[in-house]
Amino acid sequence: MIIKPGAIGDVLLSTPVIENMRYHFPDAEINFLTQSYCREALEGNPYLNRVLTYDIGKGDSSYCLIRNIHNQKYDLILDLFGNPRTAIIVFNSDARYRVGFRFKWRALAYNIKVKPRGSEIHNIEFNLDAVRALGLEVISNKPKFYLNGVHKEFADEFFKKNDLQGKQVIGFNPSGTWPTKVWNEEKWAELGKMFSKDSRILLFWGYDKEKELAERIKQAIGESAILIPEVNLKYMAALIKKCRLFVTNDTGPMHAAWISGANTAAIFGPTNSNLQGPQSKNSLVIKNESLSCLGCNLTQLSECPNEHKCMNGLSSDAVYGKLLAFMKLNKH
To answer: Most buried by CB count within 10 Å: which residue of 61, 102, 165, 183?
Structure first.
């Protein structure tokens, strides 16, 4: 069993571990434990037998989870997260081989301990260090996110219904879980107006508050902007793939976009893009290069001593210029 509770992007970046384990153990039952909201990131993965989920928000108790995992009698568990909850689950699993990272007291849960290199290497390689700790060769480091024909048909029909076929469509994802990772609403609107001269703007959202933000930006941009309907991550990715370019904050949909092969431009600030950013050839990271505090990992605006300059100091003109240059190099 492989464990990575969240978030969506982190789960997607852990998928190479699944493929590598299937390569080395072709006949094994390989399951993945994650939180319920991350299930979509793994559904349809041909290298998995089952996706096991739990939901802290709905009261799933640690005791029940520990008992259920123990009763399944795994031979090998790889904990790719290493927080107190997952460490306790692994420690009580009765698995013969327990692989995990050497994080303080949590290291006691594992009998195969991995040196954490999260500040040195990309998160994909961080996860794959668990495979290397078993003495296994890494045969692939490419994350996977699987869509099917139903998702493609939905996206085709949406583009047809909204008269988007044959037009240049730019996708915007202006939301994000952490406020420090979100570029300014006004600048999204300014960027949309710049593109609206020769493009349609497709605004993405996932939750109600994100929809409210998208609607305000749509109103500011004007008639050239439309919102996607309420859809899950796979349908969202199918729509993203049809866009000429997907511009996004550092979020789960960003990872779904570049992993799916879409032209992706990601705006980064407090997160170190060298450790967490997109890795495809047709992806671009945009950040305020004038700052020395990039990659601070702060998640709340109140914690920032520099007035959130990583986002506030990134102008729409500068972003637009970078996007035009990127689009010239990357055809649809």
So the answer is: 183
Residue 59 φ then ψ, to 5°? 85, 15
Helices then strands, each counted (H, E), the chain? 13, 12
Cis peptide before 237 (omega within 30 of 0): no
Four-residue CA torsion sign, 63, 68, 72, 74: negative
What residues contact 102, with CB distance under 8 A and at least 6 apart? 113, 114, 115, 116
CA 198, CA 313: separation in Å to the nearest integer? 27
| Domains of the chain as residue ranges with CATH | 2-132 (3.40.50.2000), 149-329 (3.40.50.2000)
- How far is residue 154's CA from residue 139's CA, in Å, rounded to a whole number? 34
Q: Which of 175, 192, 167 is nearest to 244 (CA)?
A: 167
φ/ψ region of 297 (left if φ > 0, alpha if ψ in -120 to 50, else beta) reads: left
Closest to 211 in 3D by CA, of 223, 203, 201: 203
**pLDDT at position 332:** 64
pLDDT tens sequence across 221-267: 999 999 999 999 999 999 999 999 999 999 999 999 999 999 999 99
**Residue 260 burial by Cβ neighbours in a 10 Å radius (0-12, 13-18, 19+):** buried
Burial category of 197 from C-beta neighbours within 10 Å (exposed 0-12, middle 13-18, buried 19 and up) = exposed
Contacts of 207 (CB under 8 A, 6+ apart): 175
Which segments of the chain have a pLDDT < 70? 58-61, 332
Give just the sign of the alpha carbon dihedral 148, 152, 158, 161: negative
Condensed to tens digits (0 to 9), the pLDDT of residues 300-316 reads 999 999 999 999 999 99
